[in-house]
C-alpha cells in the first residue's frame, strides 16, 4: 500500500473526527472512504479497522468536553459500562444475524428527528425540564443499553441518536448532550475495537495513522463546538442528520 493512499485516508479520518466531535456522524465519511479506497480487503476487516481511529477521536472529544462541561458523573459511568456490554452483544449478534432490516427503520426515525428538530427552534438550545435523579438514572441506563446494542449491531447515526436522547429524555442542551454522547460513544467504540481485535485481521498500518488524524480532527471539532455553543451545534446536527438520510436513501434506492 503506497503512502498516498494512507494520506488520503488520513484526510478523510481528520474530517470525520472533526464532525464526529461536534455532533456525531463521522462514520458517514470515514467508513465509505475505507470501502472505496481499499476494495481488495474484506468488509469486516475494513469496518474493524475504522473502529480504531473512531475510538481515538471519541476519547479526544470526551476529554475536551469533560474539561469544560459539567458531566452527570453519578450516572454516566454505569451508562458507559452498560453501553460497552450492549455494543459487544450487538457486534456478536451481527456475526450471526443479518442487519439489512435496520436501514429502512433507521431512515424513518432519522426523517422524523430531522423534521422535529427543524420545526422546534428551541430544541436543545437550553436545558429544560428537570427530572428526578431516579428517572434520570434509569433513562440514561436504558439509553446506554438500546443505543449501545444498535452501535454494535448497525452503527450509523449512533452519535446523533445519543445526542437526541440526552436532549429529549434527560433535558440537556446540545452542548451538554454532545459531551455526554462522546463519553458513551467512546465506550461503544472500545467494545467494537476489542471485538474486532479478537477476530483478528485488522490493518494496523492504516488504522494507527488514521487514529492520529481522527484524534486531531476531534480536538479541533470539540474546541469549536465548545466555543460556538448550542446554535452552532444545532446547525451541525441538522446537516449530519440530512446527510445520513441521503446516504440511507441512496443505499435503499440502489438496493431495491
TrEMBL record:
Domain of life: Bacteria
Subcellular location: Cell membrane
Topology in membrane: Multi-pass membrane protein
Record-annotated membrane-spanning stretches: 6-29, 69-89, 101-119, 140-170, 202-220, 232-250
Pfam family, one: TauE
Keywords, sorted A to Z: Cell membrane, Membrane, Transmembrane, Transmembrane helix, Transport
Record family assignment: Belongs to the 4-toluene sulfonate uptake permease (TSUP) (TC 2.A.102) family.
Name of this protein: Probable membrane transporter protein
Organism in which the protein naturally occurs: Spirosoma soli
